[in-house]
Amino acid sequence: MNIFAHAIKEATRYRVNLVLVFLLPFPLLLIPAEFGAFPFGLSLYGMLVLYTAFLLSRPIAEDRIKGIIVRIAASPLGVWRYLAGHLAAGFLLLGVQIALFLVGSYFVHGLAPVEYLHLFLLYLSFSVFSTSFALAWSNLFRAFNVSLGLFAAIASLLCLVSGVSLPLMLIPQQLRRVTMFLPTYWLPFGIEALQAARYGDLLLSHAILAAYAAILFIAGTVRKL
Amino acid sequence: MLSAIFVILTVEMAPLAEESALLAMLLVLCLVLVQERRSLSLTWLLFGCAALSLWAILRPEVAPLLVVFVYVFAWNGAPLLAPLPGVLGIVLRGAHTFVLPVCALLLGAALYFWRRESKELLEQADALRQRLYRAEQTELTLLADHRDVQRLAQLEERRTLAEKLHDNLGHELTAAHLSAKSVRVLLERDDIERALASQQKSEGRIAEALRQLAAAVSRLDPGEEAGVRPLAELFERFVYPVDLSIEGDSLGIEPYQIQLLYSAVKEALTNVAKHAAPRSVVARIEFAGHLVRVTVTNDGVAGDITNRSGRGLRYLRKRLEAVRGSLSTNIDKGRFTLIVTLPMRNA
């Protein structure tokens, strides 16, 4: 069995992951659109992506805590192949989740297909950032439960102030000048740009999410003795 | 380095809050992180700085980020490159903004020199640790060789003794045995004269065998005088008068132990001559059954001397401990005492 298959097996071992991937996205579709904007569920889905990415990175976090990654680093396999396998497995499951969500959204909300393509790409960028964030986050802790508890608090707060769990238009402009430094801000910003057909700003969202993902990935792959 | 960069960025970028400036900041951070993790050459930073400079000329809101490159170039020990982005930033933003680039340059340079100094100190410490390790390994090897030499000496001695016993003593005893047997045969034949002659020959051979046995034993056992004589001579030849007393029976002491005691006494007397100005030196050699103890005391301790042992005594201590002996020192009211103990053959 290769690393990718093993990682898929590990990720689907937890029932909560299966619930997150296959079940939880659908209730978000029932949240209606307000103020002539896209349905708010599209923005709130970002929070689900964040939590899903964190829980899908659990095998990596547990291997790190148990010291298995140190042994892998010394083996012919190498850390990068190990990470590539696990991250590919995580992206596959996240991609499945995003696809299921957008298909459901098409049937519920019926937006234009090109908008769904842009949304898919935007969610993919956000899931790349979320996975890097989860990797960097779990590097800070020695126990997964502590990591999860703190992550839940911090992620919820991030999503609240950056327009993911609260509509962006409700956030005052002065606060937006500060929250724009938060990576989670750029998902609702991108959705807003897509709705207003500001493709330049949409591209900017992708670029900023990719930059954050790169920085957090580098921080998350620092090996501590 | 990264914490300093974060501070610079927070101070410079927070008031601006432009999307393109944020993207530029993230890309600069990414470049700096990759350069630090992968130890990329400065060429990459130079490319990044050139790209940011071009961006700053077109979009002045990203100009504050040039300060990061001032700091990074200074931190990486590139003094010629460091001022360039700072000068460009000042030109684009105005002369009043010179403070942060200058501070970044000074901070980067200071940290560069501090890092270089730390690295040199670490390398020196590593070199010293290696030398110490090699010295310890050499010491262990020498101690092992010393034990091997002792063992070889014992084996050689036994071999020599076996040869002598076989070649000389064995022949004499065999001949004596044959002569004694022939006495019985001759007596049975009533040949009294030849029987007497044979008995005398046998007696002579046994006497010769006994003489050879005594000679062999005396070579093995040099005796009390030969054992402690070298030690006594050391004390007699010392520059200060020594009150020496020898007590007990030195029969059980091995030659290598005499050698060790000789080295210990020599080291002790050398230290007295070098570091003390004694009025009296008292030495005792006690053979107490299972133990031999040598004590050397002098009352000439001068200056602020502690109970620390010098290198010579430390090495001796290791040699003695390798053969289950001990070496200890004591300072009490100006009197320095060295005590060496070794177990004897009967232990």
Can you describe this structure in just a few lines?
The complex is a heterodimer of chains A (225) and B (347). With 225 residues, chain A is mainly alpha-helical.
Topology:
The complex is a heterodimer of chains A (225) and B (347).
Chain A: H1 3-13, H2 15-22, H3 25-28, H4 40-56, H5 58-66, H6 68-74, H7 79-108, H8 113-138, H9 144-161, H10 173-179, H11 186-195, H12 199-220
Helix pairs in contact in A: 1-7, 2-4, 4-7, 4-8, 4-9, 7-8, 8-11, 8-12, 11-12
Chain B: H1 2-13, H2 19-38, H3 42-58, H4 66-75, H5 83-93, H6 99-188, H7 192-220, H8 223-237, E1 242-248, H9 255-275, E2 281-287, E3 291-298, H10 311-322, E4 326-332, E5 335-343
Parallel strand pairs in B: 1-2
Antiparallel strand pairs in B: 2-3, 3-5, 4-5
Helix pairs in contact in B: 1-2, 2-3, 3-5, 4-5, 4-6, 6-7, 8-9, 9-10
- For the secondary structure, the number of strands of chain A is 0
Write down the oligomeric state.
Answer: heterodimer
Mean pLDDT of chain A: 85
Largest interface: A-B, 15 and 13 residues
Main sheet specs of chain B: 5 strands, mixed
Give the percentage of residues in beta strands of chain B: 5-15%
Number of contiguous helices of chain B: 10
Question: Spans of chain A of 5+ residues with little confidence (pLDDT < 50)?
Answer: none
Name the strands of the widest sheet of chain B in spatial order. 1-2-3-5-4
Mean pLDDT of chain B: 82
User: Could you state the order of secondary-structure elements of chain B as H and E?
Assistant: HHHHHHHHEHEEHEE
* SSE pattern of chain A: HHHHHHHHHHHH
Please, how many helices of chain A? 12
Structural class of chain B: alpha+beta
**How much strand content do the residues of chain A show?**
under 5%
